[in-house]
Amino acid sequence: MTVITIGIIGGGQLGRMLAMAAARLNFRTVILEPQADCPAAQVASAQITAAYDDPAALEELAKRCDVVTYEFENVPVAAAETLQRAVPVYPPAKALEVSQDRLTEKRFLNSCGIATAKFHAVDSQADLERALADFGGQGVLKTCRMGYDGKGQRVFRSAEESPVGAYEALGSVPLILESFVAFEREISVIAARAWDGTVACFDPAENIHRNGILHTSTLPARISEATARTARESAEKLLAALDYVGVIGMEFFVMADGTLIANEIAPRVHNSGHWTEAACIVSQFEQHIRAVTGLTLGNPHRHSDCVMTNLIGDDILDVPAWLARKDVLVHLYGKTESRPGRKMGHVTELKSPSQG
Length: 356
Ligand code: AMP
What we know:
Elements: E1 5-9, H1 13-24, E2 28-32, E3 46-48, H2 55-64, E4 67-70, H3 77-84, H4 93-99, H5 102-111, E5 119-122, H6 125-134, E6 139-143, E7 153-156, H7 166-169, E8 175-178, E9 185-193, E10 199-201, E11 205-210, E12 213-219, H8 225-241, E13 246-254, E14 260-266, H9 276-279, H10 284-292, E15 304-312, H11 319-323, E16 328-332, E17 343-353
Parallel strand pairs: 1-2, 1-4, 2-3
Antiparallel strand pairs: 5-8, 6-7, 6-8, 9-10, 9-11, 9-13, 11-12, 12-15, 13-14, 15-17, 16-17
Helix pairs in contact: 1-10, 3-4
The chain binds adenosine monophosphate.
């Protein structure tokens, strides 16, 4: 049997779980990550310890791998394009370009007919004041690039709140002001697209964030079948428009009338899809590995209701109690040092067989 090797750019927990899923299907993995002994390298076949845009490291990765994928969306687009000339890279570099910049992302979503919050580009304090005036003094100000887990954001809740200094406080970098969305709940859908364009979607999860970081994902989400269908259809539209291969995560706000507003896309496996390893036959990680290696997609059917909870920082101390539970799958990320806000692992509680 020929040995197929998958390159993974990024060595965090998502890369770790991809490498584990790859190993189960007889694939080897090589991780490109500057931090030695990273979570992914602990379970992979090899690590190239270098920066994501190091030309020699990219050349070596291309040589050693049959296909390359990534576990985070801030992979330099130029690095993906360089690699692409030597080896297939999935998802396509276009998906990185779209998801790295919130303005580009919103414009792209709108061009696919997918609704987002209203927004204005903000490149100065004067822009900010004009944009806030347009939204009645309310809005969420975000850096266009490199924001994650609620970092690089400021919420304006009322016209009484002064925006003075806000542009500078966020680093005088390109910003976006989004209108404040009074949503009822947040959901996400994890979908996959194969080489031949086949799409498979997992059930939408209902997500609760704490301090800007995902806290829990609950299945089923408290939404109507029509809302779930719209979420799946939006993902399908986006995947087709990007000529995508692999797993994508798409987050939405659900309004009181059930309509959806897309918030963010992640061209990779997603934290709100971790539950799939416990409640589906094929996890999002295996689905991604299947997609990028040209295999048939797995069945995304959910056999159980469940709740996934992230273990953040000192939550790691609760692991013995979680391990004592009979209905819980514990997954730890091999990080030796716990810090506030750091994702150390997650647990998925199975609730009951799905009625769906
Ligand atoms: P993000 O980094 O865009 O995923 O935002 C982090 C969290 O902030 C979201 O999950 C929401 O809970 C909240 N949030 C972000 N954008 C908005 C918005 N335009 N209106 C209301 N809440 C938002």
